[in-house]
Amino acid sequence: MFEQKPAPIIGRLVVIGVGLIGASLASALKKRSACTSVIGVARRQATIDEAIKAGIIDAGALGLKDVAQELVKGDVVFIAVPTLSVESVLSECKEYLHPDVTITDGASVKGSVIAAAKQVYGEVPPQLIPGHPIAGSEKSGVGAANPGLYEDHRIILTPLQNAGASHLNLVDSMWKAVGGEVIHMPVDVHDDVLAMTSHLPHAIAFSLVDTLAHDADNENIFKYAAGGFRDFTRIASSDPVMWHDIMRANQSSVLNAIDLFAANLARLRSAVAEDDSEYLLGVFTRAKEARDQFTRLLTKQAFVPKMQSSNIEYIMQPGGQVKGSIRVPGDKSISHRSIMLGSLAEGVTEVEGFLEGEDALATLQAFRDMGVVIEGPVNGRVKIHGVGLHGLKKPAGPLYVGNSGTSMRLLAGILSGQPFDSVLTGDESLSKRPMNRVVNPLKAMGAQISAEGEKGLPPVVIKGGAPLKAMDYTLPMASAQVKSCVLLAGLYAAGETKVTEPAPTRDHTERMLRGFGYQVLSEGAQASLSSGGALKATKIDVPADISSSAFFLVAASITPESDLTLTHVGMNPTRVGVVNILKQMGADIAVSNERTVGGEPVADLRVRYAPLKGIDIPEDQVPLAIDEFPVLFVAAACAQGQTVLRGAEELRVKESDRIQVMADGLAILGVNATPTEDGIIIQGGNIGGGVVESHGDHRIAMAFAVASLRASGSIRILNCANVATSFPNFAELANSVGMQLSVTE
Ligand SMILES: O=C(O)C1=C[C@@H](OP(=O)(O)O)[C@@H](O)[C@H](O)C1
Ligand SMILES: C=C(OP(=O)(O)O)C(=O)O
Q1: Which of 71, 281, 383, 531 has the most neighbouring CB atoms within 10 Å?
Q2: Residue 302: pLDDT above 60?
Q3: CB distance 627 to ligand 1 below 6 Å
Q4: Where is the Prephenate/arogenate dehydrogenase domain (predicted)?
Q5: Quick check: CB of 480 below 6 Å from ligand 1?
Q6: Mind listing the domains of the chain with CATH numbers?
Q7: Residues lining ligand 2, judged by CB closer than 6 Å?
């Protein structure tokens, strides 16, 4: 059988102007057999000869008129000359081209192309589809042709209302055939956006190099100009005629862009003159973050590089050891709160041990988006330049908090007290989690807040400026997020806000508020505070996260001969459910070196293997171990007898339905696990191997990784990228103690 070649997408391509842009399109289409042939039109015969020799074009001409007569429907004329020469090319098109032939161009300014077409034709002809490939290089000429130039690059088309549908389709398909991502945009939007993102940087780069080149000491300057100058000015090597044309063709948008920049540069100048360190740090930290975020977008990474690939899998070899001494990363709940309260405080708060995981970084980014200057994190150290309770600024767009329920719910409370409007959005998982639990009490306090549908799903939309009044709220469920949300809104509400919980939940908000010098009363099940106070900056030492430690507490407990020490673990009494439950199951956990850091109890935990037995988990321990159940289910699967959990329906609304997802995975591994409405019944026994789905839930992924220590076969865990939300170095630490985990992408 003959291999069939794909049918060409277009007929002939006529490239007018065989430079970088035109020659790259020609070679890209030819390489993919996406056109029948290429004719190059250039002013100089030498260019044509060079392009034919390089195989970029099949034939050449010195003017369009020499080839125009042969062209028919399906052929495309691509105008790739400097912007201000487009008009004369269009005059030739009008004279010689049949209206069935499609015309498009690659000029960086679209308004001037439209104006030229109107000048020549009277109105823009339906055969003309103005376009602009956002790809280029400082190199120019036919020698710079690159068939891969447009791959994964955006191609903006700015068709007018009267554009011919067949012409538009043809140009769309042509660009897609060479790997471009085609978008349509109005002409003026294109010119404004490009003025900011392309024309302004080129104007600055040309001007900067010219400024330095004319300096008397320029030899020295260029001799010593290292990375910064070189990186910043690469684009000043671009084609001068092309850029001369662009600046003139896009005059008004370029002027706006230069004015905006000049004003900001002048402001920066006065900050330097006045030694305004706060302003300088503000500009630089915001710009660094924006640039880093842009780099991540370009490489499709998330905050934590490990989240860049959404299909990370863990392959666990069965067996292994659990030995050594480790410190797991900082507590997630405390890290969130350190950024929130540090931002709302007066003065500079220094944080150590901050969790550099995706969730806490999402909170950090949200406050940067509201104008707070935050330095770091660098090795867990963060410096927050607090703006006071009333110093947050309106964010430019929605605050995106990724996978993090804590960020969204606590922020909802703070944002309800602000004078500006805001919107909170999250990823796919968070977008399915209920927000009415915070929307309802906040509404009762007077907030203008809404979420979507009956369940109150994100996005959460908040109208600023609504006066809040204090209230006495009894939580319908044991939730520290709801308690904290209401207390944080209480900072802005007239009167005394009281929250009563049905069972004790983590009290980091109350403790940390006190650490910032804010009075919070806790009496039995009730916490209360009054507005009108201020938070004073402080130092925060974030303990290691007991929720992350839990994976290793179980790992060592179920693996014969284990002996592991976990240092500096947060042992807040509202968090120690996992230790209590494991001890009740027979675990050997020794607590030593107990101390208090920054109002939070901390200790070292030594855990050794011990045979576990199944238990009825006391319901009062449920809120104290709420995030640790996935891994506790693994402990139950290794215990002798039956373990029963009740009163844990909250597990169904976490990053996944943790009851169902764990039951499904355990069943795949041959464990007898029966989910119930509000818990699970697990019969201890043997664990087999298999492929389990984590549903993008970090704690499920890590729990099944721990199960491998007692498995008879290997376990493949799907969808593990979100481990980076709470425990970015889990795989490394797991392997360092003797587990056998490999990560595949
Ligand atoms: O306040 C907090 O930092 C948290 C509270 C808990 O959520 P709920 O309040 O929904 O129980 C917990 O599951 C979450 O990981 C962190
Ligand atoms: C439930 C969790 O977090 P959040 O609610 O902040 O997404 C968790 O970390 O297990």
Answers
A1: 71
A2: no
A3: yes
A4: 11-302
A5: yes
A6: 12-185 (3.40.50.720), 193-275 (1.10.3660.10), 313-326+543-744 (3.65.10.10), 334-541 (3.65.10.10)
A7: 332, 359, 403-406, 627, 654-655, 699, 726
